[in-house]
């Protein structure tokens, strides 16, 4: 289990301005990146390998998931 007590959460720059669809990311944890819903942080977080998250972000930026 990953200890998230020292996570430094930052709201994603593309998150909604009116608290709809807000995502927070913590990248200060060793070897992993954590992602959570900023409106409901009590629901927990998804924790993924840092390299896997970087690959996901590269795919997003390249438009791989565009609808």
> Roughly what is the average pLDDT, rounded to an integer?
90
| Distance linking N and C termini | 34 Å
**What characterizes the major β-sheet?**
4 strands, antiparallel
State the order of secondary-structure elements, H for helix, E for strand. EEEEH
Shape: globular
Helix % is 10-25%
Number of domains: 1
Instruction: Please state how the strands of the largest beta sheet are arranged side by side.
Output: 1-2-3-4
Hey, roughly how much beta strand do the residues contain?
15-25%
The tally of helices reads: 1
Low-confidence stretches: none
SS content category: alpha+beta
Radius of gyration: 12 Å
Domain DUF397: 7-61
Pfam families: DUF397
Sequence-ordered SSE layout with sheet pairings:
Blueprint: E1 10-11, E2 23-26, E3 32-37, E4 46-49, H1 50-61
Antiparallel strand pairs: 1-2, 2-3, 3-4
């Amino acid at each position: 289990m990953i200890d998230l007590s020292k996570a430094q959460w930052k709201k994603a720059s593309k998150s909604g301005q009116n608290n709809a669809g807000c995502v927070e990311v913590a990248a200060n944890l060793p070897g992993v990146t954590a992602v959570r819903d900023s409106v409901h942080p009590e629901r927990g977080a998804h924790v993924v390998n840092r390299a896997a998250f970087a690959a996901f972000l590269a795919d997003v930026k390249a438009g791989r998931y565009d609808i």
